[in-house]
Amino acid sequence: MLGKKLVTAQKRGETRALCLGLGMVACSMMMYFFIGITIVPFYTKSVWTTESVCKVLKANIKDKVFCPNSEGSEDEEIFPYPCLQVWVNLTASGQEVMLYQTEDTPERNPKCSYVPDKLENSKEVKARIETIASNFKKYQTFPCYYDPGGTQTSVILSRLYPSKGLLFAFLWPTLMFTGGCLIVVLVKISQYVSVLSAWQ
């Protein structure tokens, strides 16, 4: 009687462990799919792939330039936030080009090197832009990314999804997938050993 209870408990434990392993595999596959349709297209679409060194030539703030809203409302509402324009010398080509913060900055506003995310408090936005401009004037040489194909003459300061960030995004689903497969394999080995022992 006690032996039957132990066997039943063992089967329940194996079933739960097997469900856990399969659940982890299923969750990891869903995470792979989500990363594949969100992060990977942005990474592959980016043309600013080669790193070089940029040297600041001028960093100007135009207070009276109206920049369009990054969210793109229906009535094309515009906001009068300061427009920071940074021009740099690209070491790789020796050309004078405009610097943008990330890949989406030229799409949001091609006139400005930096587009603030929140525009509720104009004083805070102005102070932030002035701080960024002073940092560019202080640290005049820094790494940047350019398009080796030449389709984009501008450069960017940082990529939205660099190679290390993409690898880090795939790290967690890979660990979960490996752990799930390991649990399933261990359960199958345990079941095989149990059947083999009972047969002997």
TrEMBL record:
<keyword id="KW-0813">Transport</keyword>
<keyword id="KW-0406">Ion transport</keyword>
<dbReference type="Pfam" id="PF03185">
    <property type="entry name" value="CaKB"/>
</dbReference>
<dbReference type="GO" id="GO:0015459">
    <property type="term" value="F:potassium channel regulator activity"/>
</dbReference>
<feature type="transmembrane region" description="Helical">
    <location>
        <begin position="166"/>
        <end position="187"/>
    </location>
</feature>
<dbReference type="GO" id="GO:0015269">
    <property type="term" value="F:calcium-activated potassium channel activity"/>
</dbReference>
<dbReference type="GO" id="GO:0005513">
    <property type="term" value="P:detection of calcium ion"/>
</dbReference>
<keyword id="KW-0472">Membrane</keyword>
<keyword id="KW-1133">Transmembrane helix</keyword>
<keyword id="KW-0812">Transmembrane</keyword>
<dbReference type="GO" id="GO:0008076">
    <property type="term" value="C:voltage-gated potassium channel complex"/>
</dbReference>
<comment type="similarity">
    <text>Belongs to the KCNMB (TC 8.A.14.1) family. KCNMB1 subfamily.</text>
</comment>
<keyword id="KW-0407">Ion channel</keyword>
<dbReference type="InterPro" id="IPR003930">
    <property type="entry name" value="K_chnl_Ca-activ_BK_bsu"/>
</dbReference>
<protein>
    <submittedName>
        <fullName>KCMB1 protein</fullName>
    </submittedName>
</protein>
<feature type="transmembrane region" description="Helical">
    <location>
        <begin position="20"/>
        <end position="43"/>
    </location>
</feature>
<keyword id="KW-0325">Glycoprotein</keyword>
